[in-house]
Amino acid sequence: MQFQQEFEEVDASWVRRMYEQVDEEELAAGRRALLSGSVGGELPLMVMKARGASLWDKEGREYIDCTSQAWTLNVGACHPKVMAAVREQLSYFTHVRTSFETVPKLLLAKRLAELAPGDLERVTFSLHGSSAIEGAMKLALRHYPDRRFFLVPWDNFNGRTLATMSLSYPHPWPFLQYSGYSVRVPQGYCYRCAYELSYPSCELFCVKMMGKFIENAIDGKPVAFIMEPIQGSGGMIDFPKPYYQAVRELCNKYDMLLIFDEMQTGFGRCGTMFASELYETVPDILVFGKAIGGGFPLAGSISRPHVAGFKPADHSFTFAHFPVSMVAALATLRVLEEEKLLERAQELNRFFRARLAELQDRYEMIGDVRGPGLMIGVELVRSRKTKEPAREESYQFEKEALKRGVLFGTAKYAGMGNVVKIKPPLVITDAQAERVMEVFEEVLEVVSCRQAQPA
Q1: What would be the CATH architecture of the domain defined by 83-338?
Q2: What pLDDT, on a 0 to 100 scale, did the predictor assign at position 415?
Q3: Counting CB atoms within 10 angstroms of each CB, which of 10, 30, 347, 351 has the fewest?
Q4: 3-state SS track over 404-424
Q5: Which overall architecture, per CATH, does domain 36-65+340-452 show?
Q6: What local confidence, expressed as pLDDT, does residue 175 receive?
Q7: Which of 330, 334, 329, 310 has the alpha carbon at shortest distance from 98?
């Protein structure tokens, strides 16, 4: 208790002054020092404060955040219950080696095993999504040590480490020479079917073709099929429910593991705790992250009992056991349940989808609206007949909305895509949701008028 008292008396007022007395010259020096291409800035916004579904800039202007800051803040920014739990944990300790047990680690593992669908019950932890995906790849390779190929859909995004780059779009050279073995196959993207067929008359031809790839394009059986239940960065692409079950059957037929990357879809984003529940399909390994920490870094995987485990030192990181994040995760799970945020995501989905359907009737530019819960994608096109992607218009859409105080996401990154994302925190208020749609319509009108103007 004496230590706790000393801890509380330490003066940290310099942090407050750092925000209240911003030195523009020092910030400019920081920008020059920061290497681009990783954590550099892309949008002209410096965040000074965040609460719930809102952000504030240096001038005190408020923005409604429909990106949940990389789709992580399902319970909103700085949720009081999460912050209170973290403050309490800080009076005990912040860091413990992975070799030791702690109460937060064991209780969180227990809770995740209880919440996971089916017989997913063996939990691992890391701090970031890419390392969690690599952990799932390692488990699969432990399970099938004589195999090497991973099957992945087009437009997948599983990270930016050397191991995960080969699973993700695009394929940046020169890193590929250090990447692993992957075979990419067309996915069930019904709005833009690679085989130019229509669902359901296609009878899931794309899944049948995956079998052909396995039989004819791979040297031996694959280790696993790795997929996002809903492709986030690749275009907010969800699939017909039977697609997931057909993929599960395909994996069973060819004796390979099914790995779901639920980095974006987990913890209420789809109106269920996991997308696996929504689509009634249990993978062999489920990878989680982002929203679980309530704003603190945490990721990992949950696997079925039959999947081989790790051997010593297979998958261990200095900060993989971060008790602060684990307590934040326990608090986040409480908030999701106590505040009925899964049901709230379903309710808001109905609101947004209804309003977007009205706009789709009036604006040719809206080609497709898709996604469950608060994982909504709006695909913009220059013509519904040709489905020509409105990439430049989507990029401008994001910029115009920012001017009006709403942050929308876009897919793919760096102006490559034509999908506007509506993925706010599940705690967004009705008034904020209404304002989001007002701005969406305003910007849609502006961008549509620009499109109609002769070059």
Answers
A1: 3-Layer(aba) Sandwich (3.40)
A2: 63
A3: 10
A4: CCEECEEECCCCCCCEEEECC
A5: Alpha-Beta Complex (3.90)
A6: 78
A7: 310
Q: Give per-residue pLDDT as tens, 27-43.
A: 999 888 888 766 555 67
Peptide bond into 412 cis (omega under 30): yes
Interior angle at CA 71, CA 68 and CA 72, nearest 5: 85
Residue count (the chain): 455
Q: Within its chain, how far is the Cα of 206 from the centroid?
A: 24
Q: What is the DSSP letter of 54?
A: E
Determine whether 34 is exposed, middle or buried from the number of CB atoms within 10 Å of its CB (0-12, 13-18, 19+).
exposed
Instruction: Tell me the β-bridge partners of 124.
Output: 301
Q: CB count, 10 Å around CB of 395?
A: 17
**Cis, bond preceding 305 (omega within 30 deg of 0):** no
Closest-CA residue to 67 (of 290, 343, 219): 290
**Token pair of 167, please?**
């699973």
Three-class DSSP category at 361? helix
Beta bridge partners of residue 421, listed in sequence order? 377, 409
CB 394 within 8 A of CB 438: no
Q: Residue 406's closest CA among 432, 370, 444?
A: 432
How much of the chain is in helix, strand and coil states, percent to nearest 5? 40, 15, 45
Query: Helix, strand or coil for residue 98?
Result: coil
And the tokens for 400?
Answer: 């115009």
Give the residue among 52, 76, 54 at the shortest CA–CA distance from 267.
76
What is d(CA 113, CA 303) in angstroms, rounded to the nearest whole number? Answer: 9
DSSP secondary structure letters along 19-85: HHS--HHHHHHHHHHSPTTTS---SS----EEEBTEEE-TT--EEEESSHHHHT-TT-BT-HHHHHH
Contact 222, 256 (CB under 8 A): yes
Question: How many Å apart are CA 100 and CA 214, to the nearest integer?
Answer: 42
Task: Tell whether pTM > 0.90.
Answer: yes
DSSP string, 303-321: E-TTS--PPTTSS--TTSS
* E strand or H helix at 352: helix 341-362
Q: Is 21 exposed, middle or buried (0-12, 13-18, 19+ CB in 10 A)?
A: exposed
Give the C-alpha separation, 60 to 46, whole Å: 11
Q: Which residues of the chain have pLDDT under 70?
A: 1-8, 37-42, 170-173, 413-415, 451-455
**3-state secondary structure (DSSP) of residue 160:** coil
pLDDT on residue 1: 45
- With CA atoms as reference, report the closest residue to 115 among 243, 242, 262: 262
- The answer to whether the CB of 137 falls within 8 A of the CB of 150 is yes
**How many Cβ atoms from other residues are within 10 Å of residue 87's Cβ?**
11
